[in-house]
Design a protein that fits this description.
The complex is a heterodimer of chains A (about 475) and B (about 425). Chain A is an alpha+beta fold. Chain A has two domains: about 1-95 and about 115-125 and about 145-250, no CATH class; about 265-465, Cathepsin B, Chain A (Alpha-Beta Complex). Chain A is built from ten helices and 18 strands. In chain A, strands 12, 13, 14, 15, 16, 17 and 18 form a seven-stranded antiparallel β-sheet that branches. Chain A has a six-stranded mixed β-sheet with strand order 5-4-3-6-2-9, with helices on one face. In chain A, a hairpin with a 5-residue loop joins strand 3 and strand 4 (about 65). In chain A, helix 1 (about 30-50) runs antiparallel to helix 4 and helix 6 runs parallel beside helix 8. Chain A is elongated. Chain B has about 425 residues and is α/β, with parallel strands linked by helices. Chain B has one domain (about 1-315, about 405-425): Cytidine Deaminase, domain 2 (3-Layer(aba) Sandwich). Chain B is built from eight helices and 17 strands. Chain B has helices at about 10-20, 65-75, 95-115, 190-210, 280-310, 350-360, 380-385, 405-425; strands at about 5-10, 25-35, 40-45, 80-90, 125-135, 140-145, 155, 160, 170-185, 215, 235-245, 255-275, 320, 325-330, 340-345, 375, 395. In chain B, strands 7-6-5-4-2-3-1-8 form an eight-stranded mixed β-sheet. In chain B, strands 10-11-9-12 form a four-stranded mixed β-sheet. The longest helix of chain B has 29 residues, at about 280-310. Chain B is globular, with a radius of gyration of 22 Å. Classes of the chains: A alpha+beta (about 475), B alpha/beta (about 425). At the A-B interface, strand 2, strand 6, strand 7, strand 8 and strand 9 of A face strand 9, strand 11, strand 12, helix 5 and strand 13 of B. Strand 6 of chain A pairs antiparallel with strand 11 of chain B. Chain A: This is Ufm1-specific protease 2.
């Protein structure tokens, strides 16, 4: 069920091969045993195709083509089996970037550093060396079932520095044949009568040193019905059993695949952490998206900051796989508050502020998430909350919404020195009204580390600390 | 500006010969279209019909016969060659012949294009040629019609003879393995249903090929790369192609369907395309070769199914038929350019030469035929043994009408209704 990528490390290029494989067979019988036999035989045929000389891997957006089973021969001729994997990059043309025209050199260099993924397509060479025998047409007349689909093969291997194409492609091919085995298992395991579910591989990025892991799930089966499989995986990989790693929402998002919804993910990752004597940094865990003023064609400038902070929290719960619910809109948030009786019906559609207590109520109502409220009567007291906050990020790891007498913000982490008591806060500011440009957001401090003086020393604050449930 | 036809000199001689016949002679013009100009490689007259049907009696032309001839001929043309249009040798006023030629051109194009399983491209030429030769004055009148526009009118075109038109043409070829498996619908497993299902399956395959990657002599060439050296005369220019394909991703919910059986086509075919030497581009070579691959498989399946239709006997649970092999025959004086025929393994070479004579009016010796590109189909017992439920395995050659004229007549009868419909639309 699982392929752990043993060569994980931060360096090295990831090779990712994708390509549908045609899966077709004529099931002569409805007898389960015979059907299994035919399906297994079809998988065997695919295995032998992948291992055959016809198997071809094409590096996307490049002229590079490799025949892994023909002595790793490749075209163009500059590429030999001993070429290093990272040297493939120079053959890849980033058309889209060129088409975009004028772009700052800064951006370009950043892009290429992120492009440590080489995408490949799996194809089959249909031509052979002739002459060969002319075709045979055969007809079988028998009432039965016909099975026809494509298998979405998707494998990754992480190459090590100085690894040659020959070695890496050998491992890639092993991964391919292994994935077909997994697909066969999943297909047979989830077959009911003549209903068949397409096996679907997904990649998950586990904390180091485990790295990328590929799991095959039956398509269409909801996460709620796959808990047994997840338990097995957690055991097998010795993962804590109170944190979801293998829900579909946890699937790894490759750096070269832009998020389609347009929201920025984890903008704090580009920041440099502050260094405090004896201090440590405690951060939000997992992935959230940055919600701020003026998004979604919604003019909430001046009143929507707490809504946006709440949205950021909701996005965290969704992307960690705790809830399937989409991030709620302003109106949905207001409706939830009306539903629980916190606000009158006239509140829905208004432009009124909400505070930490409302955020807590909405999280409970819409997501079933409970939250702790921390109250400080003066902003100056926040400097002494280091222990509570670090504990929160260690055990819960969720973003914190902070509001009260003044503006609302999101706290994404703290840097805290237990000995000196020095503290810094990682703040995500929902009042930003500009474009989704992580560089601007970091440079101008819309996401940044702030000192204790960031808080209004005399105003009161309420912090909403969302608690995650201990599930997998 | 009208289109420009560069015509092989031998065609002039052939047409002159037709001028000596009694009564009007019709026939087909064969060659290659390109966006700049057209190359006419050869011409062939419509074969004589033994008995004339009632419709064809008298002076009027036997349009069904002409179009059926065109259909059969287009099956014998490898990639890069096609029926460009029709000619008529008739002692009539040129302007009176226009209507007749127009009807013929449209009918021929409609029938041939209905058999195509590949999708036309934007840069395909849609003009067909209609040539009128006056046997007395030996004057030629060349016109074209846009066959994609049912209202199109005749446009004058340039007709120019030249020697060695295709002496330095390029040949691109490959040996392609075919592996098709298609379901037959529940309760409908007759030969006609098999035909429909196979066509659907072939269309999917055609689409796969179309989207596939083509390598020429082991290299991925940019679309507008010129296949060089084409201008050198008498140097044989041959390229080997490789095709890399991938199925289309399907996110279907109906993974399993009920079926009445299945049909498969497995084996290898030799595919070939010829390219004119006027700055031939890699993209064109790829397009013509891929189309030939689809056509040659479709044609063989078609020939076999037509045979089965006329000689159907008891149906077994599982039957295997060897598809005919492709045989090539060089067109005299036309450099590397060949036409082809399909030969069942129980047929002799004389049957091939007979067909070449009848369909293309070519006098060919058996030794001229190139039979080496494909080896006879072999029924693989191993494959059959893998199917545990199969009771009857039969490798058979269908019983055939060996006299081609009879076969063509049968096909004409089958098609007559459809063809006359086309005429009604065209008039």
């Amino acid at each position: 069920m699982v392929v752990a990528d043993s060569h994980s490390s931060d360096t090295g290029t990831i090779l990712r091969v994708r390509g549908p494989l045609e899966f077709k067979c004529h099931l002569d019988s409805t007898d389960a045993r015979l059907m299994h036999k035919v399906i297994s035989r079809t998988f065997e045929m695919l295995q032998s195709q992948v291992k055959s000389e016809s198997c071809v891997l094409i590096v996307c957006d490049s002229p590079v083509i490799v025949w892994p089973n023909r002595g790793v021969c490749a075209t163009p001729e500059e590429i030999t089996p001993n070429t290093l994997c990272e040297d493939i990059h120079q053959w890849i043309q980033l058309d889209k970037q060129e088409a975009a025209g004028k772009r700052s050199a800064k951006k370009k260099s950043k892009k290429s550093s992120a492009a440590s993924i080489i995408n490949l397509r799996l194809l089959m060479e249909a031509t052979k060396t002739g002459p060969l025998s002319a075709p045979i047409l055969s007809r079988t007349v028998q009432k039965s079932h016909f099975l026809s689909t494509t298998l979405p093969v998707d494998c990754v291997v992480r190459t090590t520095v100085n690894e040659t194409i020959k070695d890496a492609f050998e491992r890639l091919l092993e991964a391919l044949t292994h994935q077909l085995c997994e697909m066969e298992k999943v297909t047979l395991q989830h077959m009911k009568g003549t209903t068949l579910l397409v096996p679907e591989p997904l990649h998950f990025l586990l904390p180091e040193p485990k790295g990328l892991v590929t799991v095959v799930y039956p398509a269409g089966v909801p996460d709620s019905q796959l808990e047994t499989q997840r338990k097995e995986l957690h055991q097998q990989l010795q993962l804590p059993d109170d944190w979801p790693y293998f829900r579909r929402a946890n699937a790894y998002h490759f750096p070269n695949e832009p998020y389609k919804d347009g929201y920025l993910r984890n903008p704090h990752l580009v920041l440099t952490h502050p260094t405090l004597d004896n201090g440590k940094v405690y951060l939000v865990q997992g992935i959230y998206s940055y919600h701020h003023y003026m998004q979604d064609h919604m003019d909430d400038n001046g009143w929507g900051c707490a809504y946006r902070s709440l949205q950021t929290i909701c996005s965290w719960f969704q992307q960690q796989g705790y809830v399937e619910r989409a991030v709620p809109t302003h109106k949905e948030i207001q409706q939830a508050l009306a539903d629980v009786g916190d606000k009158p019906g006239s509140f829905v559609g208004s432009r009124q502020w909400i505070g930490s207590i409302e955020v807590q109520a909405v999280l409970n109502q819409l997501l079933g998430v409970t939250s702790k409220i921390m109250f400080v009567s003066q902003g100056s007291e926040l400097a002494s909350k280091g222990r509570e906050l670090t504990n929160h990020f260690l055990t819960e790891g969720t973003p914190i919404m902070i509001g009260g007498g003044v503006l609302a913000h999101t706290i994404l982490g703290v840097a805290w020195s237990e000995t000196s008591g020095q503290i810094r806060y990682l703040i995500l500011d929902p009042h930003y009204t500009g474009a989704e440009d992580s560089q601007v957001i970091a440079d101008k401090g819309w996401c940044g580390w702030k000192g204790a003086d960031f808080w209004d020393q005399t105003a009161y604050y309420n912090l909403c600390l969302p608690q995650r449930s201990k599930i997998i | 500006m009208g289109r420009s036809y560069i015509v092989e000199e031998a065609v002039e001689g052939y047409l002159t010969k037709q001028c000596e016949q009694v009564g009007p002679v019709t026939g087909l013009l064969i060659g290659q279209s390109s966006t700049q100009r057209e190359f006419v490689v050869t011409a062939t007259r419509t074969p004589q019909r033994e008995k004339k049907s009632a419709a064809a009696a008298g002076n009027s032309l036997d349009k069904e016969w002409v179009t059926e001839h065109a259909r059969q001929v287009s099956r014998m043309l490898p990639g890069g060659l096609s029926v460009l249009g029709v000619f008529i040798v008739a002692d009539t006023e040129a302007k009176d012949t226009v209507t007749t030629l127009r009807q013929l051109v449209f009918a021929v194009e409609n029938l041939i294009s209905s058999e195509r399983l590949w999708n036309p491209a934007d840069d395909d030429v849609t003009d067909s040629v209609a040539l009128h030769v006056n046997p007395k004055t030996r004057k030629t009148f060349c016109r074209t019609f846009d066959v994609k526009d049912s209202k199109s009118v005749a446009k004058p075109a340039d007709w120019k003879y030249q020697s060695g038109v295709c002496s330095s043409w390029i040949t691109v070829s490959c040996c392609l393995s075919v592996d098709l498996l298609v379901p037959l619908p529940d309760n409908r497993t007759d030969t006609e249903d098999m035909d429909t299902c196979l066509k659907e399956g072939l269309k999917v395959w055609a689409h796969q090929l179309e989207g596939g990657v083509c390598l020429i002599d082991g290299k991925k060439l940019a679309d507008d790369t010129e296949l060089s050296g084409g201008q050198k005369r008498n140097v044989r220019q041959t390229y080997t192609a490789q095709l890399l394909i991938t199925p289309e991703e399907r996110r279907s919910t109906d993974v399993v369907q009920r079926c009445g059986g299945s049909v498969s086509v497995r084996g290898a075919i030799h595919s070939r395309a010829y390219l004119h030497s006027n700055k031939p581009k890699a993209k064109l070579a790829e397009k013509l070769l891929k189309r030939d691959a689809v056509s040659t498989v479709a044609t063989r399946a078609q020939i076999l199914l037509e045979e089965l239709l006329t000689s159907q006997k008891d149906k077994h649970q599982r039957e295997q038929f060897c598809l005919p092999r492709r045989v090539f025959c060089p067109v005299k004086g036309s450099g590397p350019v060949c036409v082809c025929d399909y030969r069942f393994s129980d047929e002799g070479l004389s049957e091939v030469t007979d067909r070449l004579k009848e369909m293309l009016d070519m006098d060919v010796a058996e030794k001229d035929l190139d039979t080496r590109q494909e080896t006879p189909a072999e029924v693989l017992e191993a494959d059959a043994a893998a199917e545990p439920t199969v009771e009857t395995i039969e490798a058979l050659e269908p019983k055939r009408n060996n006299y081609i004229g009879v076969a063509m007549a049968t096909a004409v009868t089958l098609l007559a209704t459809a063809v006359s419909m086309l005429y009604l639309n065209d008039v």
